[in-house]
Amino acid sequence: MAADLTVNGVPSPLSAKVVGSFAYLTIRDRLPTILTKVIDTIHRTKNTFFEEYGEEGIQAEKQTISLLSKLRNEVQTDKPLLALTDDLQDTETWNQYMQRHQGLQGDQGSVSWFKSAWLYVECYMYRRIQEAVWLNPPIRDFDVFNEGKTQSFFESQQAVMALCTHLEEINKSMEQLSRSQLLDNFNTLLLVSLWGNKCDLSISAGQENSQKTSPLDSLSSLQPFILVDDSNMVWSTLISAQRPGQSGVRVDIVLDNAGFELVSDLVLADFLVSSGLAREIHFHGKSFPWFVSDVTVKDFHWTIQQTMAANHKWMSKSGFQWKSYMKEGVWSYHDHPFWTQPHEFCDMAADASDLYTRLQGADLVLFKGDLNYRKLTGDRYWDYTVSFDTALRGFGPAPLCSLRTLKANIQVGLQPGQGEKLTSQDPDWMTNGKYAVIQFHSPKSEQ
Ligand SMILES: O=P(O)(O)OC[C@H]1O[C@](O)(CO)[C@@H](O)[C@@H]1O
Asked: What positions does the domain Damage-control phosphatase ARMT1-like metal-binding occupy (predicted)?
């Protein structure tokens, strides 16, 4: 890996300043493409804006497009990042974060797209899209990525039906399952949720990316592509956290993408509850449209609603079950501004102590997806063999597990020589989404 400077043993963050790197190609090609698609979506929605808000809707469409075109130009010409000018609840935090980074840049001057930390500038782009929409009140609540998320859900229907049918079969025989059968079912649904992370729209710059076939059929052929598999530790954490007289533990799932991935997470959550392993599931989502396909509160409820409305017995039954879990408080949905900020998670205890405290109440936290992995590890040039514990740099509110398919040049916790071997066999292994990890950390093991 192109290791860079380290400060006190901590490597520097990935950045587009490494010409030709995945970060560089993302800033040069993928972000402008995403912005162009957003502009196109807003333009195509012009008539709806007019029908709903008259001339003000048209003005809002024009002004939003102009702000987004300006943003695209800033990216393409490597302009300095600008302070946010809206009045959202996180504006101040974002602007303070920028000042902090400007301080770190030292003599190199301001923070800019191709020179600064990739994680920071990529997150910043999604926040600027939100600013552009927010500054135009008639279309404030418009989700510029909604179309793609909806399409990806409908294109995954066959896979969703197969998965809900599988869930029904498990639930029917739940009472008779032995401990080892329970474990087998747990492992299967954990894997489905893991591979569900292949379906994200940001890596494909918004191109269709759904799950067309039953994910259950391909699990064994995908097994060799799992580079680190700590699923046994996830299981033993769930089992050892069970308390006499209390039915099940609390599991938090930090969600990633809407569409098939969200369904795969809901199915896993359903199994955890119906098996009695968990008594409560807390889902964590984004407070505004993020990285193209990430789950917002609207996507979450819409997905449950659509599942209920499906013309398929077991799919619709699952949807009704999920709705009642929500109603009874067995499942709950939470968002927090920290999830749509650029911080590495080792900053959470200091910068979002309320969220850190909330996560401390969980017996297990599952972090879905690549972006969460980047934030867990700080998106830095770590050596492949550095341990996951080291890369977390003290972050550990509760036992946690990352379920991630690889879509960025960062991977830790590999065996000596494993990364080099992969590079020689498949040079794009870190970014082509073919490989995955189930990586676990327990704060207890550090005591
Ligand atoms: O949906 P996921 O798994 O978090 O993946 C999103 C990933 O796609 C990318 O946008 C590709 O650049 C990464 O920045 C990001 O980590």
From this structure: 26-422
* Interval between CA 370 and ligand 1 midpoint (Å): 5
What structural domains does the chain harbor? 13-139 (1.20.930.60), 146-446 (3.40.50.10880)
pTM for this prediction: 0.95
Give the distance (Å) from ligand 1 centre to CA of residue 203.
6
CB within 6 Å of ligand 1 — which residues? 26, 30, 122, 197, 200, 202-203, 256-257, 291, 369-371, 374, 407-408
- The angle formed by the CA atoms of residues 318, 319 and 324, to the nearest 5 degrees, is 95
Q: Are 90 and 340 in contact (CB under 8 A)?
A: yes
**303 CA → ligand 1 middle, Å:** 21
pLDDT at 205: 54
The answer to whether the CB of 297 falls within 8 A of the CB of 309 is no
pLDDT, tens digit (0-9, with 9 covering 90-100), for 1-46: 544 567 778 999 999 999 999 999 999 999 999 999 999 999 999 9
Through-space distance between the first and last CA atoms of the chain, rounded to whole angstroms: 31
Residue nearest to atom 5 of ligand 1 (CA): 370
